[in-house]
Amino acid sequence: MAEDGKFTVSFEWLSGCSGCELAMVDLHERLFQVLEAISIVRLPILMDRKDYPAAKLGIVTGALRTEHDVAAAHRMRETCDALLAFGICAVYGGPQGSGYAHTIGEIEDAVFRKNPTTRTTFVPDQGIPRLLPELRPLDSEIQVDHYLPGCPPNPHFVAESLTAVVGGGVPEFGSHNVCFRCHRRMERSTVSSLRRLQDVELAGDVCFLSQGVLCMGSATLDRCLAPCPQHGAVCTGCAGPSELVILEPNRDIRTEIADRMSRMTKIPRDAIVREIERHSKTYYAYAMASPVFRQKPTFLLRRWIREGGA
Ligand code: SF4
Ligand code: SF4
Ligand code: SF4
Fold first, then answer.
1. What's the whole-number average pLDDT of the chain?
2. What is the 94 CA–ligand 1 centroid distance (Å)?
3. The domain 7-166 is classified under which CATH number: 3.90.550.10, 3.30.470.20, 3.40.50.700, 3.40.190.10?
4. Where are the beta strands (DSSP E) in the chain?
């Protein structure tokens, strides 16, 4: 506890985009309630503090991409009583997990040597942390006590998790998928081919899948209250895979969606599976780096990406 008796919280950001830190501000007026209960002892986005003070809770955002990330993760584990992996990058590797599909050399080519805006042979390698061979989620290196996926996590669940942990409890979540909170109606249709959101006029109250448009809600955990389908956008899976996909060895994102969509429409199941494989860097974007997927048929991800070129 801090001298003022408040619950101490220490933050660390690894390889991420700082969107998770900004998500804290999305708490709006609830932020004041949270700040009354906690004392922040370290927060890289606002404080120039290099050491790692002891804290009751450590909140880690971002994934492990560099040697510095690994060292920082260990320092957080050593100095914090409990650790919260905050955001899909920390939980499953997040969007930069798509680096899984490429070697370090290919990534350097894309950013430096063959990038039309830089086109330089100079690739910085002095005085900066070295890249790990692959990006990894936080719990591949250290023990994690609590998880809060989302890109970034939804303010409703941020407030709920912090309140639970600060009160000495464990955040509780349901095991529903995004469809559970979506107001769109699943119904049978005669649509016989896949369609793109931007190419067709769609009914606002009917499930995207029924209308031939891929939506990942049925294979995604509800950690967001389904804002995207409620506002006309498909779910892209940013809260990570559903419980079924995680726990069942033979279930997978593409088969979950294809089974459901082919039952509701006249689109052949194989065509849906092939489309998802062809664009697997999009459909597996948030969890590609997670070892959860290496145990599944998705170990073919690298091949799909190579062949799909998307
Ligand atoms: S989870 Fe999303 S918002 Fe948070 S650091 Fe990763 S990419 Fe950024
Ligand atoms: S698949 Fe998408 S549009 Fe359909 S019910 Fe689920 S979240 Fe809503
Ligand atoms: S609906 Fe899907 S994409 Fe939108 S916030 Fe929720 S999980 Fe993320």
1. 90
2. 7
3. 3.40.50.700
4. 7-13, 38-42, 55-61, 64-66, 80-86, 131-136, 146-148
